[in-house]
Amino acid sequence: MPYKDDQLHEEKVFKDPVHRYVHVQDRVIWDLIATPEFQRLRRIKQLGTSYLTFHGAEHSRFNHSLGVYEIVRRIIGNFENRDRWNNDERLLCLCAALLHDLGHGPFSHSFEKVFKLDHEHFTQQIILGDTHIHTILEQVGPGFSQKVADVIDKTYEDKLVVSLISSQIDADRMDYLQRDAYFTGVSYGHFDMERILRVMRPIEDQVVVKSSGMHAVEDYIMSRYQMYWQVYFHPVTRSAEVILSKILHRAKYLYEHDYTFKLEPFHFISFFNENVGLSDYLKLDESIVFYYFQLWQEEDDVILSDLCERFMNRRLFKYIEFNPNKQMNEWVELYRLFRETGIDPDYYLVVDSSSDLPYDFYRPGEEEERLPIHLLMPDGNLKELSRQSDIVESISGKKRTDHKLYFPKDVLRKLDDSAAKQRIMQLLHLEQHWKGAENHAD
Amino acid sequence: MPYKDDQLHEEKVFKDPVHRYVHVQDRVIWDLIATPEFQRLRRIKQLGTSYLTFHGAEHSRFNHSLGVYEIVRRIIGNFENRDRWNNDERLLCLCAALLHDLGHGPFSHSFEKVFKLDHEHFTQQIILGDTHIHTILEQVGPGFSQKVADVIDKTYEDKLVVSLISSQIDADRMDYLQRDAYFTGVSYGHFDMERILRVMRPIEDQVVVKSSGMHAVEDYIMSRYQMYWQVYFHPVTRSAEVILSKILHRAKYLYEHDYTFKLEPFHFISFFNENVGLSDYLKLDESIVFYYFQLWQEEDDVILSDLCERFMNRRLFKYIEFNPNKQMNEWVELYRLFRETGIDPDYYLVVDSSSDLPYDFYRPGEEEERLPIHLLMPDGNLKELSRQSDIVESISGKKRTDHKLYFPKDVLRKLDDSAAKQRIMQLLHLEQHWKGAENHAD
Amino acid sequence: MPYKDDQLHEEKVFKDPVHRYVHVQDRVIWDLIATPEFQRLRRIKQLGTSYLTFHGAEHSRFNHSLGVYEIVRRIIGNFENRDRWNNDERLLCLCAALLHDLGHGPFSHSFEKVFKLDHEHFTQQIILGDTHIHTILEQVGPGFSQKVADVIDKTYEDKLVVSLISSQIDADRMDYLQRDAYFTGVSYGHFDMERILRVMRPIEDQVVVKSSGMHAVEDYIMSRYQMYWQVYFHPVTRSAEVILSKILHRAKYLYEHDYTFKLEPFHFISFFNENVGLSDYLKLDESIVFYYFQLWQEEDDVILSDLCERFMNRRLFKYIEFNPNKQMNEWVELYRLFRETGIDPDYYLVVDSSSDLPYDFYRPGEEEERLPIHLLMPDGNLKELSRQSDIVESISGKKRTDHKLYFPKDVLRKLDDSAAKQRIMQLLHLEQHWKGAENHAD
Amino acid sequence: MPYKDDQLHEEKVFKDPVHRYVHVQDRVIWDLIATPEFQRLRRIKQLGTSYLTFHGAEHSRFNHSLGVYEIVRRIIGNFENRDRWNNDERLLCLCAALLHDLGHGPFSHSFEKVFKLDHEHFTQQIILGDTHIHTILEQVGPGFSQKVADVIDKTYEDKLVVSLISSQIDADRMDYLQRDAYFTGVSYGHFDMERILRVMRPIEDQVVVKSSGMHAVEDYIMSRYQMYWQVYFHPVTRSAEVILSKILHRAKYLYEHDYTFKLEPFHFISFFNENVGLSDYLKLDESIVFYYFQLWQEEDDVILSDLCERFMNRRLFKYIEFNPNKQMNEWVELYRLFRETGIDPDYYLVVDSSSDLPYDFYRPGEEEERLPIHLLMPDGNLKELSRQSDIVESISGKKRTDHKLYFPKDVLRKLDDSAAKQRIMQLLHLEQHWKGAENHAD
Fold this sequence. Notes:
The structure is a homotetramer of 442-residue chains. Chain A is built from 23 helices and nine strands. With 442 residues, chain A is an alpha+beta fold.
């Protein structure tokens, strides 16, 4: 049964704390939401380890995916009578918006790095492979799933469609900024989305913004800037992320060195071997990860059990500002001293760096190239945002990196007194003023 | 090292979306939060299966526990200079508030019913047993843990202290109404807590409310009423709860009938045997439950695997209004017809009833007796709320029960045509107008 | 130039704190807003003397009128494809919504009572008389202004149209509850209007509400109940209203007794003579009233100057609960004692009563008959709300009246000691516990 | 009766939509609020002509003054146990906060410019002159009123006290940003004040902010930047301001040229003569101004009556971007053409410029020198904000000026066709795309 134009008898709604209601008029959207692949997103947190810093941040990617869909639905609703807009692509946009994060796994960032995975690859596989999602999409029309996959992959020919879910001011970003602000409770993350949606116009290959809405866009950019530094790169969150990565590294290492786990970690085997199939990937949600972490707290390997116990019970590492590029000597010395005192520095002395580019204009050839934001001026011309806005210009293209050194303060404190201990304490400023993971969100 | 009066060097805060900030000044509170027993509450949802109806309702009991603590902290702050108030009990109140829900397990309601458990029993055990919590409480002073346990058990001698966390208008209820409204996104659940806190007064055995604040209290009572019927007893949530219970029943049944699970469900064994120790209890958080439900989707027993697949993928039962007391004949007939068509009615034809008493005055001898709300009149006398408030009087003491019959509509539809099928469809009004689980929050 | 279907080239918006934006698409609406008669509403407060109790309540009737228009616009937007709805009446509804309060003057309540006026009469006159409003309406089509007047007068033949701005759950009430709550800052007044608008359906002669939205309607009814008792009938607001009425009475009395005002009160002459023409009526906005009250503070008549000084500087009367029907003897005695001590009881001893009917079902023959709220049941039948809702039933049709006695406590205190003074103090409970106007919003 | 330490028997509260509640504990504060001089602030709008752009902006200076008081009260509450803080100055701070805007008159900006007044001068006079305010302040202690005046005048010796109400991040600014955002309904103006208050510390001569709160301060600075350009300098508001100024100019001109007004404008005489005494000043509130503007609509002088009619009925001037410094030739030509076509350019062709310095560090010798914001670093040192914050640095010290040319488009349109008219239309771009006052807030 072909799906096209198959409207639900009566519109359905989801109560949503961020957008008040998410409206569904199309049966295909309804059916996509009901698939196991989409329901699985309920078991994956939107913000990974952030809940250990901001206790409200327990919301899932399911939440966010509905939100992105809803924003695209509203944008398109405003476009209906515009010349440039081809309403045949309505359903394509809605599906791509809903499914764009489908390939995310638990704690994606760490898993991808440790096991050399790419969630975008799995998004493509879920849409094109042997899944409920695929079956439903193909009922819209043959080849429809490929189109959806192309939009998400940014290779779809109509770049206007792509820009709705992937640009400097797309539905994805507008949803997550507001949603993550709502659930963490921070006061950043607010901007006048209703105003932005009203002034968005489809022009050629992109969605542009009427210049009368420039200040609302400035607010959005600033909001993004604040959210990055206040929430996404919060050092306590990164402390948990560091421990998580080390757990995965250790488990892989043990597996590779023929360690015998008390219970065979069969969900992880293909990850350790770096040949994860779609079916294995879909099974590994956060509850499975937590299950193993709980078990591993009782493993004989002291590093694995300690790290798991730390993660599960939020006994995180402390940190200091530390730039290994500039502090090479201290780094080498600390590494040696840790080894000397019996604390494995490969697991317990970790540098983590974060960086963000709050707003960037187009630079051909870069990997993560995103379309810049263009303003539609009263005379009909387009101007790139940072040329009109002082504030945006001021933060445009400025990459800021923040390095921190993480370590288990509690362990160091319990070391027997020795010259090594004293020197460690000195190098890590442990006698002085310092901020630590115990500060939660402060 | 005794804890008493041991203030943190600098106040710590948690960013909280409901109360903006949760403030911690006492080291003992800080240390209690850091225990494994308390951190475990992060892995137990506050609202059980409600997230399947309201996707925002993914917040944990950890969240709520901090919130109750914060409200009690604010109430006590207002009491400081009142005659009746004994500030020596400050820390006792704070600890009891923080820990009052400590014994909750995953999906408490269903687990308690199926396995005959009582979360309050485990709260007592965690506070008094061999736990980190217990150790920290005893450092405040010998016997302090017993006092905390008594307050939570409502047996503590100073009933004023008890009433802060257990009365018709306690910190527990004030937090959960606001918090659950915030995370679900419903517009009910708002009342002027700041006003209520300002007019609370400690008098004799209870916290009373100055009569000038009566309307704020009315709003609170109405808010509670609406939250019960709109959120807590939502029929879709109950559909998930029904399936969950049936999974537990089936697994227990299979275990008792020597069924061989593909993986020994060792976390569940003591539950099946109904002799759960503290250590086993603490291990069973939601991620463990989800782990088994995922595995059991692939069990050979078709009932267990079907129910688990339904729960994990939100393929819920539909429902109709149905009062088995009044519709005994239909019930018997349906039961027989289900059996006849090969659908086990013990798992697939389930009546669920819910009821609530929105506000009740004291009735001696009842099990769940809670202190009524008293108003402090300008002349210094106390009056019971429902005598002063028309609105409260109107809903006071009225028990309302709502019965629904749950069944798998999808299975019934796929039955071969037969007289039995036709009769089932007729009895369940499946040809007519009906509301079903597909309505999500609508 | 006929107006019909004359859309603005580009939609205009007003930023509105309650509805976020008010959208205007029709040139006629735009032009009506720009008339002097409509702009005059900026100089008339929505809540009269309430700003003396709630300092935020300084918003004007201009605000509210735009809000009612916007709500009707949204309701109609949802009706567009419904059978019952005749979209030819769209512009009629919008105009009637915008203009329904056009005839209000400053502090309407007091002015109407003292000078025997009726703001609805003036609304009709402004729409049908020689005004900018009339000219614009007639450009829509001949006779259009009469239609608008009829809708506001509730005599228009299509009662569905009438019910949008005048029923138990009309746009007027939905706007003022939310708006007055917003500006006063009280926490009552919130209900889920978006939900209510979604479930409204035009059926026969009225707008009904799908039964699935019953709880949102309950919330609205409760909100109205709370706003009446917490805001609209606040005793401090009524104290100011009492003084205002007495000023008008006194000025009229003086005029009738050939008193010579320092400046001829020419704006008031036709009011004193009770033959107010449209032109005089439109000139008398709040700033004119304040101008005279300022001047009159310096009049020789001590009663007039004292009352004006009280009103302008918020030196209000205090009050006690007092029911003259039941306390006739005290009343007579107080009246006599006031006279005896030289305080004119006709101006300084005032009983004020207020009452409200929070929700009422239809009672044929009553003056203020408003259509009851009907629920549209799943089976297509209509049921009156109070039959389905316990809460509404409980407050339905219950008239509650509240009597208070107002008097100038400051004057009484300064009386020379005497038996009369002592008896007055006793009768007014001035030695005891009492609440007074100094409590502002508390 | 000395006031010091005279607490109210029971704390009083005002319901405030921005800060929820304003709390009053001191009798002197209560009594100051009740004075005629303070109550007068109810009749002066906080944002002057902004209500003609944002209809919600009808709030008075009374509102704002209570808000500033409340913020200072909260700041001081946090300071109580800090070394640097001298609690003897508590009452002084509270009084200065409450009274700092006392000297404002209606539409201060225009009145000050046209009549060469200074509201700060009148604030001093009200505090030190023969007023109720003065009497009450002196009851606190002899000389107390002079101290309050000095704090407001920034000459008080303890600069810490001064900085609470007059610095780059004082209570004044924090209140008006939030309050004006609330009443206009714009989404700018939000920042985390609770956080800022928590991290404020009294150090030497100023209030500094702990560096951990830097991002909240950035948000505040950005909020201020956005409010200036979106609200305070809105071109439609300025259009009304332009007309208002021209009315005052014309009335003064007529008075000076012996024009006979129909009613002697006795409230204005001392303003025309530029020798305004305190008593005259206090009488001139907004209702008086509106009274005259209404009368003047019927004056024989066509310029005065036209301008008054425009202001009262919001028939504002349109505008184009226009920098007279760079467009001298056009300016001269337009001026000549207006004169030629009989439209007096002195009243109908007006350039208005606005500018703002969003955040500035200290530059000795400048008139409006305000203390820069200092961050308290973890090592105890102070650093100036813009050195730590990229965003603030980017907008720091950058003066931006915006020039617009205002004119009555409606009049120009009605001119007879002529070369002059054509040239005017061309110079003012009236055939093209242009934005005008009809856009309200868009």
